[in-house]
Amino acid sequence: MSKLTVFVLLSLLLASGLSWGQPSPSIVADPVFYNAPLYYNHTSHITRTSTDELIVVWSSGSTGGQIVYSTYDPVFQLWSPPAPLSSAGDRADKAGIASDENGNAYVAWQQRNTSAEDYAIYFTKYDGSTWTAPMDLTGSSVENEEVSIAVSDQGRIFVAWNTDAEPDGSEFVLSIYSDDGGQTWSIPPDTLSSSDGLIGGSSTTCGRPFLARGNSGKMVCAWHERPDGHSTEEVFLNQFDGTQWTGEQVVSELTTNETRYPTVAVNSNDMIYAIYSPRYPQRSLVMKKKGWNETNWPAVADTVIEAGYVGYKPFLGIDDNDNLFLVFRRDNAADTTYGLEEVAFVASKDGGATWTDQVRLSRENYDAGYVTLAPRIRPSGVDVLWREAHTQFKDDPDTTAIVYGHIDFAVGVEDPVPVVVKKFQLQQNYPNPFNPSTIIKYAIAKEGFYELTVYNLLGEKIRTLVSEYHLSGSYGIQWNGRNDRGNSIPSGIYFYRLNGNGLNLTQKMILMR
User: Fold this and answer.
1) Cβ distance 226 to 207 under 8 Å?
2) What is the rounded distance in angstroms from the CA atom of residue 380 to the CA atom of residue 382?
3) Is residue 416 part of a domain?
4) In the predicted model, is pLDDT for residue 153 greater than 80?
5) If we measure between CA atoms, which residue out of 55, 56, 61 comes closest to residue 37?
6) What CATH number does the domain containing 138 carry?
7) What is the pLDDT of residue 381?
8) Sign of CA dihedral 176, 179, 183, 184
9) 314-318, 365-369, 473-477: which range is least confident on average?
10) Integer Cα distance of 125 and 316 in angstroms
């Protein structure tokens, strides 16, 4: 069954007690005529609200670019056309989105109205029907950049950013919060970095804050910088106890090894997990964890992704059962010509002691990166967003695509239990309409030889997707909109049919190029 993806609990991932179906990428926007629509991945670009509304945000361009959003329609299985949130005179960039438990979503970004102006941090709120007018949170007396946004479990909105484009001594990580849905804010901002500022602020990667909620109003913020007297960049973290922020803590060891791109999560017992990327071994991913009231971080980090996979720029999330989900960027191991990268994920049900095998999320041979997930992981699964190239075999292109993936999962399965399928089923493909690919799921009640075939309106066979012996169980396969000769087929209505052992089930699908 090498061509099939099995969606039942008999997945190989059962050994870890955590399993899911193979994610099915969905195109949110393509083409996007900008190579940096999702810079950077220190804040999420996707959220699912408590009312189950899925919203994504990105930047539409450089000069003249605005922050735009799109929502998903589950009935028609379509993403809405991008609509602007900002109205910047020069440009708006680097947005983040978060949601609360009352159906609201919040977006923050950096914006300037002329090229000579410094950036200010802007904010808007969505109440389930309308967005508020953008609010300037900081003014533009200094360069305010690389914002992050998160909402505590008590509904307090946190916004953090840096001023690392300012001269030495004026580069800081700052944070404010709002207790009334963004109407008023805690001004002046709290300074999270040390009083001497970001020593390594000359690096554009320094000071990007990653916010993650804890329990009972708690929040954490992580970033990296070059500490005073050291030649390497290290990971730092602050804790907000519900009332105030602590001073910065050194998470990574102060050695000759540089560490970058921290991502953090807090479990139900206030255990803080920090994952980051050391320079040596190059682009591996390691993890440290500590209790909320513990003073020091462990001296030694645990390996999450080995160096051979060249994983970096991670984003960590945690669900209500304390399962950890990590998405990250890695090299395309099969590519030795174009320098392509791809997006993958792993998960852990035991606090990072063990991790599942890596699963690729991005489309094959599409350069991919800048992946984030929705920090509030809902019961339906994990929502993920990333950037891909517009075309295959093109590294870091100027024209890109915004791509969504949904990771279905079942948690808490300790022992593999055979799943008995009592009824044949051919499900509606997802997404539908689709472009360029879709997932077809089906269930086999009686073992035997079965075929899954695609036909056009004339009844002509377009593609044989599956033709082999099946055991009883649930299955799924992705179709890329190509015929048996590997050629792309035109837009239109198509039928897919599951037949064998006297069975004949048919469904209709729509391809929209």
Assistant:
1) no
2) 7
3) no
4) yes
5) 61
6) 2.120.10.10
7) 87
8) negative
9) 473-477
10) 24
Q: How far apart are CA 274 and CA 251, in angstroms?
A: 8
Expressed as residue numbers, the domain containing 495 is 425-511
Q: What gap in Å lies between CA 498 and CA 427, rounded to an integer?
A: 10
What backbone phi and psi angles, to 5 degrees, belong to 392?
Answer: -70, 155
Residue 338 — left, alpha, or beta (φ > 0 → left; ψ -120 to 50 → alpha)?
Answer: alpha
Same domain flag for 201 and 322: yes
Q: pLDDT (tens digit, 9 = 90+) per residue, 356-372?
A: 888 899 998 999 999 99
Q: How many Cβ atoms are within 10 Å of 89's Cβ, its own excluded? A: 12
| Chosen domain end from 362, 386, 411 | 411
Q: Identify any residues that bridge with 99 across adjacent strands, giving them in sequence order.
A: 105
* Three-class SS state of 12: helix
Q: CB neighbours of 96 closer than 8 A, spacing ≥ 6?
A: 43, 44, 45, 57, 107, 108, 109, 147, 148, 149
Classified as helix, coil or strand, 15 is helix
Give the strand pairing for 105-112 and 91-99.
antiparallel
Q: How many domains does the chain have?
A: 2
pLDDT, average across residues 254-264: 83
Q: Where are the beta strands (DSSP E) in 171-270?
A: 173-178, 190-191, 210-213, 219-225, 234-240, 249-250, 259-266
- In the 3-class helix/strand/coil scheme, how is 338-402 assigned residue by residue? CCCEEEEEEEECCCCCCCCCCEECCCCCCCEEEEEECCECECCEEEEEEEEECCCCCCCCCCEEE
- Domain-located, residue 260: yes
Q: Is the peptide bond before 40 cis (omega within 30 degrees of 0)?
A: yes
321 and 184 together in one domain: yes
pTM of the model: 0.78
Is the pLDDT at 436 greater than 90, yes or no? Answer: no
How many residues are recorded in the chain?
513
Distance CA 416, CA 408 (A): 18
Judged against a pLDDT cut of 80, whether residue 115 lies above it is answered with yes
370 and 443: one domain?
Answer: no
Is residue 270 a part of any domain in this protein? Answer: yes
Confidence of residue 228 (pLDDT cuts 50, 70, 90): low
Q: 182: phi > 0 → left, psi -120 to 50 → alpha, else beta; which?
A: left
276-291 residue pLDDT tens: 998 776 778 999 999 9
Q: Is 93 within the bounds of a domain?
A: yes
